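Morning!

This is the sequence you dropped in the shared folder:
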Amino acid sequence: MTAKTWPGRFEEQVVLVSGAAGGLGRAAAERLRAEGAILVATDLAIGAPANESVMDSHGADLLLDVTDPEQWRLVVDHVLERYGRIDGLLMCHGAQGPEAPVEDVPYDGWVRTLRVNLDSCFLGLQSVVPVMKRQGYGRIAVLSSIAGREGNASMTAYSTSKAGVIALVKAVAKETAADGITVNAVAPSMFDTPLLQHLSSERNAQLLSRVPAGRIGHPPEFAALATWLLSAECSYTTGQVLDLTGGRYSGS
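The structure's back. Tokens below.
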């Protein structure tokens, strides 16, 4: 699908994106670039092998293991040294985790899912919020999931991690509301990303049956919402979870 963009909306604004090589992160990064942002795109799949800490190989593309607090520090320091500020943070990284009944979920799979999906967002906020407080301005958007609102059977680790993201966003939004910073979450349902390939066909059919629109979402639709949340226009919306679900709602 083709989305209308607003060239210049992010002119001279520095936006840091994690998970920028993923389906949703890539779409948002492309739109931010198209609208004039100075984009710092990070991912494990960008810039350098996983055994290197940070590598600036494409002007603004950096390696970032979101579970490593030292790598968050290195990336933020790099951005500040190069650009002097961070106006926006979009955290689009994530892992689906084990798909199994709770009694069959391996503990290491549980721990890894929470580290990738939840602990990482805590680390990102710890690293970037102080910068935005000093500036007196910032926009933060975090990828959650409808599973974090209602829980998906056989996806306990994923659902729990995304529910934690929602609580984290709400808490930090209250802490930073007087500092010119907004912090919001987006809770998608099914989107056309590689994540769906890791779910069984039965699970995909089951989840799609709960979407009133009768289709999966497309990454540009996520990008449209995420970029608004990162824009100056999002000045009085904070601590919110915006569903992006084709009509699916908690309890449906």
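Headline: The mean pLDDT is 89.

More detail when I'm at my desk.
O.
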